[in-house]
Structure formats: C-alpha cells, structure tokens
Specification:
By secondary structure, this protein is an all-alpha fold. The protein is 84% helix and 0% strand.
C-alpha cells in the first residue's frame, strides 16, 4: 500500500515539475531582456542630461512662482482687452 502511495506522490511531483518547467524562461532570455532594460534606462538618462544642458539655465523651480504670477497677470490683461 505504501509503495502505491509513493508512486502516486512521485507521479504528482513529476507532473508539477513538468508544468513549472514550461513556465520557466531561460536565463539567456532573461539576461537579454535585462540588458535591453539597462540600455533603455541609459538612453533615458542621456536624454535627460541633454535636456538639462539645453534648458537648465532657462528656468528653475525658484522661477516657477514668478512665472505663474506673470501668466496670471497676462491672462487677466488679455481678458480685459477682449471684453
């Protein structure tokens, strides 16, 4: 009786391992995907650096309140002119 239960358990384990093996992605495929993600991140960092170089001196967070106030003032003037 114990022999038969062991065989059944073994068969179940083999079945489970086989089903897991079908879902496992090979390491090479994972490494290729990780390299792709790393390359994309490096490209985005490069683009961000280029944008900082291009626009870094034109506007800062310190300038934001003044820019907002100026935009509000201009929109208020244009509303008075149009009405």
């Amino acid at each position: 009786m114990a022999r038969r239960e062991s065989d059944v358990e073994f068969t179940v384990l083999v079945s489970q391992v086989s089903s897991l093996a079908l879902t496992v992605v090979p390491r090479d495929e994972n490494e290729e995907r990780w390299r792709s993600i790393d390359n994309r991140a490096a490209d985005l960092r490069r683009q961000l650096g280029d944008l900082k170089k291009t626009f870094g001196g034109t506007f800062s967070l310190r300038d934001a309140p003044a820019a907002d106030a100026e935009a509000d003032r201009q929109s208020g003037e244009s509303g008075r002119r149009g009405g």
